[in-house]
Task: inverse folding
């Protein structure tokens, strides 16, 4: 049986892991390679690294960090932030990442998803999407770019469906409203997107308890739950999270 | 010495890094001649079948891999490498290497209606078939491995399947035919269980013929 994945997200800025609330006030919380190794040993299923300043500064992916992470852990990890060209994708994959998450550059140049999938396969092309509640949009959610700073005219649901047809093999769906609040995932948004695409959806933003995770993996129909604060804060270990999910009948890798 | 085939298709680096962490002697090359003296060969790959076959032809690895398979030396295909060793892939309607008889097919279209996402992405447990393989020595039946694929291998001879995985149906995920062995999942991305498989292939007295 396919397991629900527990993914830890490391927001990276200038080579250090940071964590902020609603994309602001980022504080240094550690060395990403050491943290990745710790979560690997705890049994995390996958990791995501976001170079959170890359889009804003128009900088390429941090290849050195990717290489050091790849030397240390032997599970899949995805890299996002500043991946805007085929060369960026190639360099990231060749450095040892399993997948690339493309967010703002995909909005500006949707063909990048298609071109990337044609060369590397859609399984390594992940659409990163930051969505925010907006009742003027058809689905009720608007897509934002540049780390949640700039609103687009894209409707979240329409963009998800289109991204799949363009070549995305997975969607990491982040709720700007829920991000960093630890009050729970955006269940309505996650379920709506997951029910309308045929590719895996990773729920992101708002995890505070294992109950939140269980909710988004069942009622929210997410294929994976992305967490950050819960484990970065030391409140939970991956092992404790998995044991609790398992006791709630959710299939996890033990 | 273990050779790694580098043909511009995907996360070759991950395989290399896994071998480094295991202390396994290896050589990675884009030139077939540089791998001719290897004792065994890993044929990895992530990506699109048509693109990969073009790269194999351009580099001369297509004929090299056919000759290698005929030589009797161990070959381990991984992910896309496990698919391209078959006759044909539905991905891009691509004629492949034909080292093993069979096809590579896309997951059925009705998966979407059944709520099954494609790619089959994530950790899933494998069930040993037909006695398993010495490749799985030290690994418990139903251990989890990391999968990422939209196409699956469909061997003409079901008796060569050494492991299967359940995803909407029973999906063959490991095969062994003589010296040619292949796994659909990513041992280099499957934590300690995956590293054990690479160790079994590279370090132990791997016969390519015995079963566990």
Result:
């Amino acid at each position: 049986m396919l397991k629900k994945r527990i993914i830890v997200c490391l927001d990276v800025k200038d080579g250090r892991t940071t964590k902020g609330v609603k994309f602001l006030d980022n504080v240094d919380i550690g060395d990403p390679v050491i943290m990745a190794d710790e979560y690997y040993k705890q049994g995390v299923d996958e990791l995501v690294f976001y170079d959170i300043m890359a889009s804003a500064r128009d900088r390429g992916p941090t290849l050195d960090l990717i290489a050091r992470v790849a030397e240390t852990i032997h599970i899949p990890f995805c890299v996002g932030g500043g991946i805007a060209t085929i060369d960026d994708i190639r360099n990231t994959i060749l450095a040892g990442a399993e997948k690339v998450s493309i967010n703002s550059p995909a909005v500006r140049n949707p063909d990048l998803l298609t071109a990337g999938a044609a060369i590397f396969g859609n399984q390594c092309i992940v659409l990163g999407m930051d969505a925010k509640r907006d009742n003027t949009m058809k689905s009720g959610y608007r897509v934002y770019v540049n780390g949640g700073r700039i609103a687009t005219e894209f409707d979240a649901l329409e963009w998800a469906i289109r991204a799949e047809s363009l070549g995305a093999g997975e969607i990491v769906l982040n709720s700007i409203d829920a991000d960093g609040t630890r009050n729970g995932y955006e269940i309505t948004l996650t379920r709506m997107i997951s029910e309308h695409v045929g590719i895996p959806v990773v729920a992101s933003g708002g995890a505070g308890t294992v109950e939140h995770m269980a909710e988004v993996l069942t009622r929210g129909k997410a294929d994976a739950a992305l967490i950050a604060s819960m484990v970065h804060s030391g409140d939970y270990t991956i092992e404790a999270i998995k044991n609790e999910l398992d006791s709630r009948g959710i299939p996890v890798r033990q | 010495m273990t050779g790694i085939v580098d043909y511009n298709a995907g996360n070759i680096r991950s395989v290399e890094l896994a071998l480094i962490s295991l202390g396994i002697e290896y050589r990675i090359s884009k030139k077939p001649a540089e791998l001719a003296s290897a004792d065994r060969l890993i044929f990895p790959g992530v990506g699109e079948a048509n693109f990969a076959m073009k790269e194999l032809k351009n580099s001369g690895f297509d004929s090299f891999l056919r000759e290698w398979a005929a030589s009797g030396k161990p070959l381990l295909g991984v992910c896309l490498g496990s698919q391209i060793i078959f006759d044909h892939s539905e991905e891009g309607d691509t004629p492949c290497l034909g080292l093993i008889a069979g096809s590579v097919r896309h997951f059925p279209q009705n998966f979407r209606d059944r709520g099954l996402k494609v790619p089959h992405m994530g950790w899933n447990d494998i069930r040993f078939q037909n006695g398993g393989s010495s490749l799985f020595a030290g690994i418990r039946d139903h251990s989890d491995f990391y999968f990422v694929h939209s196409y699956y291998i469909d061997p003409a001879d079901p008796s060569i399947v050494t492991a299967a995985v359940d995803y909407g149906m029973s999906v063959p995920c490991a095969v062994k035919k003589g010296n040619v062995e292949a796994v659909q999942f990513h041992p280099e991305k499957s934590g300690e269980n995956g590293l054990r498989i690479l160790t079994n292939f590279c370090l132990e007295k791997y016969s390519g013929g015995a079963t566990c």
